[in-house]
TrEMBL record, chain A:
The lineage of its organism: Bacteria, Bacillati, Bacillota, Clostridia, Peptostreptococcales. One of its GO terms (molecular function) is ATP binding. Residues 2-231 form the ABC transporter domain. This is ABC transporter ATP-binding protein. The keyword Nucleotide-binding applies. Belongs to the ABC transporter superfamily. It comes from the Bacteria. It holds the Pfam family ABC_tran. It comes from Anaerovorax odorimutans.
Automatic annotation (TrEMBL), chain B:
It is a multi-pass membrane protein. It is found in: Membrane. The chain crosses the membrane at residues 12-38, 44-65, 95-116, 128-148, 155-172, 184-202, 209-233, 253-277. Residues 44-169 form the ABC-2 type transporter transmembrane domain. Keywords: Membrane, Transmembrane, Transmembrane helix. This is ABC transporter permease. It holds the Pfam family ABC2_membrane_3. Signal peptide: none annotated.
Amino acid sequence: MIEVKNLVKKYGSHTAVDNLNFSIDKGRIYGFLGPNGAGKSTTMNIITGYLAATEGEVTVNGFDILKEPEKFKKSVGYLPEMPPVYTDMTVREYLAFAAELKGIPKGERKVQIEVIMGRIKLTQVADRLIGNLSKGYRQRVGLAQAILGFPETIILDEPMVGLDPQQIIEIRQLIRSLAKNHTVILSSHILAEVRELCDYILIISKGKLVAQDTPEHLERLLCDTGTIKLEVRGAAEQIKEVLLRMKKMKDYRLSKKEEQLFLVTVTPGKGADIREALFLAFAGAQLPLLSLYEEKGTLEDVYLKLTQEGGGALESHLQKRA
Amino acid sequence: MKAIYKKELSSFFRSMTGYALIAFLITFTGVYFMIYNLNQGYPFFSYTLSAVMLVLLVLVPVLTMRSFAEERRSRTDQLLFTSPVKIRQVVAGKYLAMCTVYLIPNLIFCLFPLVIKSQGSAYFLSDYSSIFQFFLMGCAFISIGMFFSSLTESPIIAAVSTFAATLILYIWEYLTDYLPDGAVANLLIVLVICTILAALIFHVTKNRFLCAAFEFITAASAVTVCIVKSSLFEGLLKNVLGSLDLAKGFNNAAFNNVFDVSAVILQLTVIAVFEFLTVQSIEKRRWS
């Protein structure tokens, strides 16, 4: 378990990470989501021990990263934004070096490297120089390095960048299978990727944590201010009359599309589903409905809103709804 | 540490750098050896080595420039410093690998006195102790080069600054000759150094009192000592700075037939200090 408390990182006068607090439990996939420059990489660099925080502390299973860095680092595998590969080594040489660096016992190294290369599909390029490999393969070599030794926590900074669609699917499957025995933390600025993979999302913007929850919760919590749109044939007065009789409705808006055809936007009361009631009411008044659909805000909207407006956006969003 | 040592050493010989550097040094040694020892018949190999020293000044920057600058530029340092290895182990591993590359030509140098012997009389004690001092001096230069490499992201800047630093050390003996002998002049320079140190203390601690106290105490004691016993200040800087001459050990072995133990201690100290500074400069980067 990793616990991050009041984490602050300043580069001179620029605050890259501003008072982050979160904890990571075992055996789940966590997603750091945020636009470029939000502080994802800095946070990851701190929780892997590459950078030191200006303030705050990071502990893993109770070990402080500053006081017992070796124990801490042994339980973490890290794939940075740019895979840390030596271009003048072959894949096999590089992985052997990484395995020795990570203190994997001599007898296990060879077998483990073969197993991992098989899993990440590197076996056919094992004896090629990393400098001659494509970006996607280098990314995989970096990933193999992060998995070496099967550490408790695997931290991946934008693991899908530079991969082709086929590779993305493969890596996604790999990450899912890893999550059975490991905790995986990955970062991305692509929402779809995080929603697809992660059990838990942390949205970061301008160095601040603006929201954290499971994808379903985030979606439900933030997005159900959906409106209902209807196309109704009839006179404006008749339509208004029907709408005025509706219960559990907050607001409505009428706009004329053509003669005897209106576009109606209905805002339901909190948590109410009034689609059926609307249908029956209009049917009862002999006003034909040409269409009826619910327009839901997506996680995408929320993400954009949160990350563009920064820290206060979530609270104001929730307040507005209440 | 062993992993890093092995990897560094093999990367020197994978990339030709190692072969090229060794060949370069050996070639020049061979040329000088042919001229001084074979053609002119001078029986001391150490004389050849003293000419090769200039070549060493070019080689060391090339050997050390990539050590940390390149890691930082290609971001591979993220692997090293997130692995369960201490920073000083990384530094030691890299340093020893560079020293090993440098050791190879030095071992080959050991054959040259034997060639001289086969042609007549040779002076093994003098020659081998100068090879040893030559090796140690190179190791000290390498530690300086490694430190410069850890300061920057650009191997070129690292190489140029290492070359400048080692060149100054090369002419150190002549430079210190130009320092004044008089007590008052030395006192003035000491006062200037105290002021610079005080300014540095202020910059680091932002404590006016500490800075003023340091300046006052050091300046007052320097002036008092100078008044009481001015002979202490005569040639002070020349003596102090002169004792930092890294080439002294080699020159003593080569030209005076003296094995200078104090020079060995000086070289080892320089190596330790620059290893420490390298660790600190890497550590500092994590915090800023």
